[in-house]
Queue: 4 jobs
Job 1
Amino acid sequence: MGGMNPTPRQRARAQAIEDIKRIAREQLASEGSAALSLRAIARELGIVSSAVYRYVPSRDDLLTMLIVDAYNSLGEAVEEAEARCPREDLVGRWRAIGTAVREWAVARPAEYALLYGSPVPGYHAPVEQTGDPGTRVMMLVVTLLVDIQRGVPVAGVDGVLGRDLAVVREAVGVEVGEEVLARGYLAWTSMFGLVSFEVFGQYKGSFSDFAAHFAYQLDRIAAGVLGL
């Protein structure tokens, strides 16, 4: 048997929450996450502020909704791009991951800033809600590292860093040596560093074609860091 159709009240509630999130995203784009206000959203929707609280208990709950939606939107975009590549094309998969991240971020800079910009004062994201959505892109990179490891000898990393990497490896539950995992961290942070510099305007006056610069650097990371 199929699931029950939502009732008119359930549909109305779902639509109200979507309207609240839509106005909230507009606030993010115009004023930034720190200025997010449920009262301002209520004014924009033409309702009393107490009505908003029936759907969203607090500003922090609204931020969490927006973060989860943004992580899932980013994750879906990157997963779709990566899935179009043959599994044996490791360079192509890396390019697809990076390019999809950049394209999503450039198209939705306010949401990217919410995920990867400065923390919102007084807000702490609940990991039980944001953890899985927030690791969707990372797990694509981890899967790529597993495939990279199959082609090279397993190597460790000495000292406290090696122990830290071993803990991460066990937590993620993948067969990857510490040395490849360390390279993965460098590739991951380099890719997001490139995206963040572009989205937050740090390259202003430096490049006329940001996409070409990103593609070039992405290939340098593939060759010089990931060994592809």
Job 2
Amino acid sequence: MTTTSRIAAITGVSALLSIAAVGVALPAFAAPGSGGTGTITVHKFEQPLSGDLGEADGSELTVPSDATALAGVGFRFCVIDDVDLSVASDWDRLKDITATVDAGGDLVVTEAPATTLTTTCGAEVLTDADGAAPSPALPADRAYVVYESTPPADAIYTMQPTLVTVPFPGNGTGDAWNYHPHLYPKNVLAGSGATKNGTIVGGKVTFDVTVPINNLGLDETTTPPSPKSYTQLQVEDQLSGALTYTGASVVLLDPDGDEVAIASPGDYTLTESGGLVTLTFASPQGLALLDANVGGSVVLTIAADASATGTTANTATITINGVGSDVEVVDPESFFSGAHVVKEAQNRGAASTVPLAGAGFTLFTRDGLTTCPADVAAAEADATLATVDTGAAPFVSAADGSTPEIVLAEGAYCVYETTVPAGYKGQTTGSLLTVSGEGASTTLVNTQMGADEGDLPGLPITGSNGRLLLTIGGTALILTALGLVLARRRREARQQS
């Protein structure tokens, strides 16, 4: 390489480095009128209980680890066609521009007093798994309206259309102008955090629907923004045909988990019709209690009897301020009809058993039951065992030996005989009843008293052998008597001689 070539090469490299250095430094000194491009990134999260994720100044925030990102939310970035921010006077126009979305979902931008401005919108951008929706490169020195074009299906409130400039004023800690502003709008989702549990013991089913009293955020249409209030909280729960409603109750808990006094119908209403249970907070005093206990929860408990084969699968619809969402029972349990106990008797001398009436039983259960305690007293003392409610009718064997059929949850049960028919020996140990389908049963056999030696006192001996023994015994007595008579006569004869 010649000296001239080497110098040219060095000069070229120096020029590139200089250009690169200038390119890196440009954002620090860029200002409206400098041209170029920028971006706007929307980060979508659920409304946190605290109300904020951080300062809304256009900078990128470090979001708390427990913040819930919302994926699949759509945003559009629309430039206001006749606003040019390279012109100083157009910055003054921004304070008079408002943006709304009409009933048809279309963006409407107006400049006071009544001028409708045209916009050009790019394609919808969906948030990713982290809740981020970055715009494509946007020309700088323009004003944009960002609006939520596809909100979550169960969002109570959506993001208000927001006017954002590129560049956006800095926050005082870095560059004077931010060419890549970040927005952090939040959605309040109906029923967010709600849970539903379904439990069954024997044939008694209980559902607990817990609805958090979430922060609804700020109403940005007011000046200054004011907290949004509850206008409705409703829970609807349709029980299946295999369940018979027996009752329900409601508890309101404050943020510390302490119960708040509430009354019906003043604060809420609770009704049931055709298995549809409906809880509604709609009165002014009831809604005021919700607003005063943000961070707490409402708990609806529903009790029902299993009356046919089915499961505890169930869905509750939660409606907050007119927007509904569903919450379902996790891991529902099955229950089956026709469970019963069969009692039979083994009578003395009989070759086979026969049905036995009048035997009463008590059932116990727990998850994972494989063996039964030694007797009913031990079962009653075992705190891990639950006594099964077998219904209003006595759980006693009838003439056919069977107890009434009942509905029981899938699982194992310890059966103890607590009423023993007269004349029979009862069973003191527990018997295992396994329910895995309809018609489950277990058979218990009682032995008749007297069937085993020692059960009863012995009876007088009868029959031919008995007569022989009596004859022999009688003859012996007669011979003994004759011997005594002869001996006495011999004594008398000796005395006379």
Job 3
Amino acid sequence: MAAAKAITGISNAAPAVATAPGHGVAAGVPVLLSSGWGRLDGRVVRAGDPDTNTFKLLGIDTTDLLRFPASGGAGSLQAAASWTEITQILDSSSGGGEQQFYNYSYLEDPEGTERQMPTNKSARSFTLTLGDDPAKAWYAALDATDQAKLPTVVRVVLPSGSVIFYVAYVSFDKIPKIAKNQGMSVTAVFAIQSFNRYAA
């Protein structure tokens, strides 16, 4: 991730426009946002139509003033500076996202019928099982990201050309798993904080 740069304001528009003097962000580059608006804080978005001091936050609608109070979006940005392709993927799996519920009943209900309302969803993550190879660039990149204990941007390019960007913490287990009649493997777990999807 590139060094953080200040965002002095974000407009209430669709798409929203960020003002960040001398940001240097090119069109299409994903940026990780820190914002006074909780619904934008920690999100990753693509930059659009940049000029010297502003750029659009593609796919972001901030016209609802209740959710995005005027003049409250200032913060900072970090652009994704470069990418390291992860190869030798043997398997992938995902977990979490299960709906949680609040259960309740009314005292005056003679049958004591229990009801429920949806609340949160459990934390999400995905795991990649990789062919063990310390010589690969991704091995060092995953290790460094694990050691940094900071969120990073993960890009998944789909066969259709659509792109999913995740903000995630990375946990990399370098101890290889050894099994009979199988190659050695290592695992990387991505704890998802947020995501955004863009069509091709």
Job 4
Amino acid sequence: MTSSTSPTPRTPHDVLRQEQVVQAAIALLDEGGIDGLTMRRLGGLLGTTAAALYWHVKSRHDLLLLATDTVWSQAPLSAVDGLEWRQALLAMAGNLRSMLFRHPWLLVAMTMQPLDGAARDRHDEHLLAVCTSAGFTRRDAERAAQSVVTFAIGSALADTPDPNVSFGLRSLLDGIEARLSEASDSAGREGAADRAMVRATTRATVRSSGAGKAPPHRPAGH
């Protein structure tokens, strides 16, 4: 007598991967912002139930953290060696603006401290490395990096035309370069600004400039 066995039921964990869930979440965020991301809508987009998504993420907040970290991980990082520091900072500011226009909800995420993840940390540390490689002290490097990031965020919020952004950034870097020259004459200063304070300044800038509102959506290639 031949016995038949039923196949083992497939669980939602077998059908979907976390990466698929995160990429679908990013698509919803790009379309409708943070408020537009719900587990029910995400489940519908993926052809599953909201409950099934919890095989892959602990909570909606966890999903936002993963989405934010994924987007930051895609931001290009300029070479520290072999590239003049001004050009490196210009490139990183341009990359940040482009990222914010592709993912406008990220500006709101920047005001939510718990959404800072490992990829954001790598980006910030790389920006600091570019500045310190130019001869800045750690403290001045943090100030220079914060100035560039704040300018990039503010210009994205205001949807400032690219020629004006280029002029403003180059003027800002002129001031930073002058500061570097002053610092070289007074070696030995020490101390470093706390990263939490740096990010708090960024969040305060976003809130005061646009109350966490995303910049206008730009079509690809803008």
